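in:
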């Protein structure tokens, strides 16, 4: 079975952003180098076929071991199918080019199920090709924020493991036509799902200076957001990522060595247009009800806006604490839905081979046997 469907509201872009003069997170806490790491590792020539762009999976063995609930994977000898042969239902919420999914499949039994999600139509084509050869794989072209509904449509109400490798993939950056790159020219698009929603260019045409500045500050921690927003809004059109990057560069008064001045602004617009943080919040909240007792959650993030959310979510639901909110009474019985979470970073060997891994963190936890209460705070 291969499920490809579209939900008109699943990738709905934001129509507004909180007009907060300051983000909740201090400027020093954000790591804006993830996109820079990715872009600076780009090769000079791009393949002509979109399916040929490659992605080096980050924290590969660590994440697959985590989602299976084992300390490590068995060493695989050449040509040897020495997998763990584990049954159950697993979800890879961010298929990309399937690096994690393929290793996971090598450890799963013939009767296991792997459901893969991605917003990106090209990633979905690769996933469908895999599904045509491996009947354990089921494909959902949608946001992982639709987790519960998408699984329910397949008759699934609980799973053994959930993994997500957040953000954008190397193929998305390397293909200039997608608009994510400030080093390759293309239309100013930046949508992960090109089949729906508004592109950054369309949004820039109608957004006001102040809202744009707030987005640059909130999602990119760009200190010079107002000046950059003004310069962007003075542009005649938004047809070229290189032109946009050049305008940001000119407007930016404080260049940092080794970092393109448009790094934070591009990150901010990308996070905003794809509703990346909202989707992560929705996915995490749904993981509580979807994971079986003893099921595993494993999430890789590449910048602190995401990592902080995952950390706080797991802390809240492993310690049984709810957010400090004076207006809400503390419930007498605070459920602990997850075991004490663990965090793993990349090895030196991995970061020297793959610069993109430098800013990655994997956070993982096991679902406890505490019954889910519908009223739980996300
Ligand atoms: C870092 S890549 C994943 C790479 C993958 N683990 C691999 O080994 O090839 C992230 C992928 O997640 C997808 N993605 C990001 N946010 C998503 C969301 N909310 N729902 C579904 N897919 C999403 C992107 O389109 C991209 O293909």
């Amino acid at each position: 079975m291969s499920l490809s469907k579209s939900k008109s509201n699943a990738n709905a872009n934001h129509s507004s952003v909180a007009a907060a003069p300051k983000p909740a997170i201090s400027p020093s806490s954000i790591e804006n180098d993830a996109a820079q790491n990715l872009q600076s590792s780009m090769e000079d020539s791009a393949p002509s076929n979109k399916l040929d762009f490659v992605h080096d999976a980050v924290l590969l063995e660590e994440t697959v071991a985590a989602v299976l609930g084992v300390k490590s994977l068995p060493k695989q000898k050449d040509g040897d199918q020495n997998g763990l042969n584990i049954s159950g239902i697993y979800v890879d919420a961010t298929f990309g080019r399937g690096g994690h999914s393929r290793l996971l499949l090598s450890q799963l039994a013939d009767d296991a199920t792997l459901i893969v999600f991605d917003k990106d139509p090209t990633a979905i084509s690769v996933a469908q090709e895999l599904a045509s050869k491996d009947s354990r794989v089921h494909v959902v072209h949608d946001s992982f924020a639709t987790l519960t509904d998408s699984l329910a449509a397949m008759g699934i109400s609980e799973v053994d493991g959930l993994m997500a490798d957040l953000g954008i993939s190397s193929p998305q950056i390397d293909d200039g036509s997608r608009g994510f790159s400030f080093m390759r020219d293309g239309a100013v698009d930046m949508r992960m799902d090109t089949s729906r929603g508004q592109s950054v260019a369309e949004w820039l045409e109608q957004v006001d200076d102040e809202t744009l500045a707030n987005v640059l500050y909130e999602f990119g921690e760009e200190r010079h957001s107002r000046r950059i927003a003004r310069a962007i809004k003075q542009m005649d059109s938004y047809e070229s990522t290189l032109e946009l990057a050049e305008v940001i560069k000119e407007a930016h008064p404080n260049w940092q060595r080794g970092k393109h001045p448009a790094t934070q602004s591009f990150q901010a617009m990308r996070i905003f247009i794809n509703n990346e943080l909202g989707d992560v919040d929705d996915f995490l909240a749904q993981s509580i009800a979807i994971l079986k007792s003893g099921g595993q959650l494993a999430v890789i993030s590449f910048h602190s806006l995401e990592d902080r959310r995952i950390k706080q979510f797991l802390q809240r639901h492993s310690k049984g604490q709810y957010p400090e909110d004076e207006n809400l009474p503390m419930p007498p019985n605070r459920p602990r839905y997850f075991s004490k979470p663990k965090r793993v970073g990349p090895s030196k060997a991995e970061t020297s081979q793959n610069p993109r891994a430098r800013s990655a963190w994997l956070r993982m936890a096991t679902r406890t046997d505490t019954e889910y209460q519908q009223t739980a705070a996300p």
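note: The mean pLDDT is 87.
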